[in-house]
Amino acid sequence: MLRKIKDYDFTLILTPIVLSGFGIVMIYSASMVLAVVEGYESNYYLMRQLQWFILGLVGFTFCTFFPYKNYQKLVKLIVLGIIVLLLAVKFFGETNGNARSWLAIGPISIQPSEFAKLGLIMYLASVYSKKQAYINNFNRGVLPPLILTGVVLGLIVLQPDIGTASIIFLIACSIIFSSGIRFKHLFMLVAIGLLFLAIAIPNMITDERVSRFTGAYEPFNSPELDGYHLIQSYLAIGVGGLTGEGLGQSVQKLGYLFGPHTDFIMAVIAEELGFIGVFIVIGALATIVLRGIFIARKCEESFGSLLAIGISSMVGIQAFINLGSASGILPITGVTLPFVSYGGSSLLVLLTSMGILNNIAMNVKKKEQEPVPANRQSIPDNPFTYKGGTKWSS
Fold this sequence. Notes:
Blueprint lengths: L9 H28 L6 H22 L4 H23 L1 E3 L2 E7 L2 E3 L1 H19 L7 H5 L1 H14 L4 H17 L4 H22 L2 H11 L10 H13 L24 H34 L3 H26 L16 H26 L25
Antiparallel strand pairs: 1-2, 2-3
Helix pairs in contact: 1-2, 1-11, 1-13, 2-13, 3-4, 4-6, 4-7, 4-12, 4-13, 6-7, 7-12, 10-11, 11-12, 12-13
């Protein structure tokens, strides 16, 4: 049933849709020459992203009206489906670049690790919302969900897809921190993470991964090899200035810039639309993240609050890693810019996530409009402000 107009959160409806539409325009601008070089029509990447955008709008619309609390009932099936897909990638996946991350299902290819982000958010939000009464008990309240999280991370690292694994790890940290965990338990988790990292790093070091670090932090020591991609990004950003060279006028996308429609699409935006274009994109992403955090704080139900935090952190963390790679703050990881970069699975998951966030926001607005019972406590059952107990006074 359609809701009243005032129940809709138009910020969360318009911002991701407009940003995705802008991304489609920039993907066409950044990829039309690349597509021809690869033997396709100039609009090849445009049409593929447009198809995923339409599918994403379907997911967005459905999840906007589908009650978010129902995901708690479906979370076991969702997690099982994710693990099955990740195992299928391990044995039947397709290799793209240096990672075996894709799974062909009929005429389309999907990236299960993208769906794992949202599935794990639902799982962690569900589990930790149920453990609020004993969240201060490390062995009972904090540790058990991390075992499954470790399994999912391990399957993604084996692809290997370190960028996506890093995003999922940081999302998990955001949800755990927001669930009301004690600081000493947080330090214990950090210590455990550092221990596993110390064990894993010697086995993960390869010449290619070392070159990514040297390319990020010493690009001009090897301008034709390790530092080449970042230097081309610098050139694109520097040429753009305040207003840019004009839409479609990028030079760096003509074979100089690696992944102009994926990893380095922000460099093309900077070259063509200048600082103003970059500022608008970052502002739109920040609006989504901050709005999601605001909704999480306003939501009186712990599952919805943690779900909103997970979705907001997914957008924010992914954007930070992509922008950090394009600017030399972080090594190049192959992480796309949310809503803007080319990538069907990513766009579908992001728009679907925005639908879920919209449903939480609509329920928050509906609750705010309801009359407050006289016996209601002033502190809601929200992990940001309250740990355990009941919402209503006796």
